[in-house]
């Protein structure tokens, strides 16, 4: 990441967005592994987190770019590792990725090697005390044990959480991992005296409440997006998003011109 003084003059760099950062609690930076089109990233944004995601599918990422999600997304294969600086992220999430790393679709894609590289590099890219939550669809119990063994070898602690274990449709399996010792760690590396433990699994009587909460979050995101664009012309919307990207220090923002927001004629 480039230095602030290389991005813009101080009176521009320290605009409204940066000024608020100095008076607000620093949000955690989350890694979304297999971010797809950014659906889970939208929930992270809604909850006040900053996030970076990667996915192996160019088509999924293209949809995310079209939807103009707030996080940064990149094309990458989890089986090749998480190539980020050590201690870059405060946590990680993943939906429906782990079982794909167990799929030997080519002669050189050995599941053991891919999982080992993935968990080892992920462990290094997380801060001490960070947590990861993987929701996945294992083929059988042996595959679950195989994945957990690779995670343990990389240094992770944690275990399995199964929501609605007696339901065929609602059953969800999560691998919950943490980095470092058994104690939670504060933002400055200080121990908080709270022991790391697995979250309580949801039971059947909580299923309706959980579904209602998920629906509420989706509806809130939809309403927020509608309000964001209400009364705005296409050109105003594009200019506003460009200005936001410039304030964030992005260097590949297209220049404004008289053609901004205008439909192009097909040749």
TrEMBL record:
Organism name: Malassezia brasiliensis
Instruction: List all Basic and acidic residues biased stretches.
Output: 207-223, 240-259
Enzyme's top EC category: transferase
Q: Name one Pfam family in it.
A: WBS_methylT
What keyword terms does UniProt attach to this protein?
Answer: Cytoplasm, Methyltransferase, Nucleus, S-adenosyl-L-methionine, Transferase
Protein name as catalogued? 18S rRNA (Guanine(1575)-N(7))-methyltransferase
Q: InterPro entries recorded for this chain?
A: Bud23-like, Bud23_C, Methyltransf_11, SAM-dependent_MTases_sf
Q: Where is this region: Disordered?
A: 207-267
Tell me the GO molecular function terms.
Answer: rRNA (guanine) methyltransferase activity
Q: Where is the 18S rRNA (guanine(1575)-N(7))-methyltransferase Bud23 C-terminal domain?
A: 191-265
Predominant location of this chain?
cytoplasm
Q: What gene makes this protein?
A: BUD23
Chain ranges of the Methyltransferase type domain: 31-104
This protein's source sits in the domain of life called: Eukaryota
Q: Where found, per UniProt? A: Cytoplasm; Nucleus
An example Gene Ontology CC term for this record: cytoplasm
What's one GO BP annotation on this UniProt entry? rRNA (guanine-N7)-methylation
Does this UniProt record's set of keywords contain Ion transport?
Answer: no
Q: Does the keyword Zinc-finger apply?
A: no
Could you say which protein family the record assigns here?
Belongs to the class I-like SAM-binding methyltransferase superfamily. BUD23/WBSCR22 family.
Show the CDD domains listed in the entry: AdoMet_MTases
Q: Which spans are transmembrane here?
A: none
Q: Which residues form a coiled coil?
A: none
Give the EC number(s) listed in the UniProt record. Answer: 2.1.1.309
């Amino acid at each position: 990441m480039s230095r602030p003084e290389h991005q813009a003059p101080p009176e521009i760099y320290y605009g409204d967005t940066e000024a608020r950062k100095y008076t607000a609690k620093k949000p955690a930076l989350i890694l979304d592994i297999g971010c797809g089109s950014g659906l889970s990233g939208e929930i992270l944004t809604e909850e006040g987190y900053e996030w970076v995601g990667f996915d192996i599918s160019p088509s999924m990422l293209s949809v995310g770019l079209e939807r103009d999600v707030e996080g940064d997304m990149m094309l990458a294969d989890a089986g090749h590792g998480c190539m980020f600086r050590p201690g870059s992220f405060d946590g990680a999430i993943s939906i429906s990725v782990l079982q794909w790393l167990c799929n030997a679709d080519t002669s050189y894609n050995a599941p053991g090697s891919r999982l080992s590289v993935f968990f080892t590099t992920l462990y290094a890219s997380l801060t001490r005390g960070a947590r990861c939550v993987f929701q996945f669809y294992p083929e059988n119990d042996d595959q679950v044990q195989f994945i957990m063994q690779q995670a343990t070898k990389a240094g992770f602690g944690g275990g399995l959480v199964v929501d609605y274990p007696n339901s065929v449709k609602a059953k969800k399996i999560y691998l919950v991992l943490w980095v470092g010792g058994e104690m939670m760690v504060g933002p400055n590396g200080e121990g908080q005296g709270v022991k790391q433990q697995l979250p309580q699994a949801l039971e059947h009587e909580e299923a309706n409440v959980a579904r209602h909460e998920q629906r509420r979050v989706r509806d809130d995101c939809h309403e927020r997006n509608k309000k964001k664009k209400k009364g705005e012309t296409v050109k105003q919307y594009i200019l506003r998003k460009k200005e936001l990207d410039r304030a964030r220090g992005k260097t590949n923002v297209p220049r404004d011109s008289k053609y901004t927001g205008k439909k192009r004629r097909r040749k």
